[in-house]
Write a structure and sequence with these properties.
Layout: H1 2-37, E1 40-45, E2 60-65, E3 119-124, E4 140-147, E5 156-169, E6 186-191, H2 193-205, E7 207-213, E8 226-227, E9 261-266, E10 274-279, E11 282-286
Antiparallel strand pairs: 1-2, 3-6, 4-5, 4-7, 5-6, 5-8, 9-10, 10-11
Amino acid sequence: MNRTRLLMIGALALALGVFASLFVYKNLQGRAGATAEAGSDVIVAANDIQVGARIEEHDVRIAKLPPSGLPGGIYSKRSQVLGRGVVIPIAKGEFILPSKLAAENAGSGLPSLIPPGMRAVSVRVNDIVSVAGFVGPGTRVDVLLTGTPAGAAESQTTTVLQNVAVIAAGHTLERNAAGEAQNTPVITLLVSPDDAERLTLASNEGRIQLSLRNPLDTRQDEVAAAGAKGLYKGISAPVAVVAPRPRPVKKTVAPLPPPSTFNVEVYQGDKKPDVVKCSEQGCGDSK
């Protein structure tokens, strides 16, 4: 009898444990479902999207995420991003934010990367000018010009532009898949309208050279032009010889010669003639 009672108590305890476990499981599942239903629609990248690409249907997907963890300006509809150009690389799973897209109706490709008020100017380069191909999209460079200024006797090198952004290399807006540098004959720089004129003039006046710089170094330095004579030690620049000023010449007035005199004899009847001294100024008294 005691054994039967113990079995009944054990069975009842087991049933109560199962019931409690099911209750807790259903409660937690209901809370998780309520949390998922409270999430907001968010547009994220379905694959890697490169700079200059146009966002297509297969590039995006909708995810449900808690609103508290979302950044500002997030998109929730596909129609808000389809057809927009990409100005910053977007990795798979990243949020698609307004700062990563070109303006509406700006299109895709290189034109979408040009901000208002700026210009894209291409310059022809080679392996030396492009720093062995390491000048590529996303880097920043200084533009140096080597030439002979008008009226100068030697060639000079001067820094024309500083901290200029490179937005394209050839027809490519990105490095290759391995991230390696690529040698291209044309580099496209992003400059202001005034700098576009200076860059075009520099490419026609002499030889240009690109100097690669750290993208975190945005300082603009005052760099003086370098001449050929400054490259060699022990050779100083020629000292300009100042011609001595001519001394003023004092004008001396020669003294006038004494007036010439002569004697004039004056006869009066049979008297002894009188002698009168005369000069160019007239005659004096007779003697």
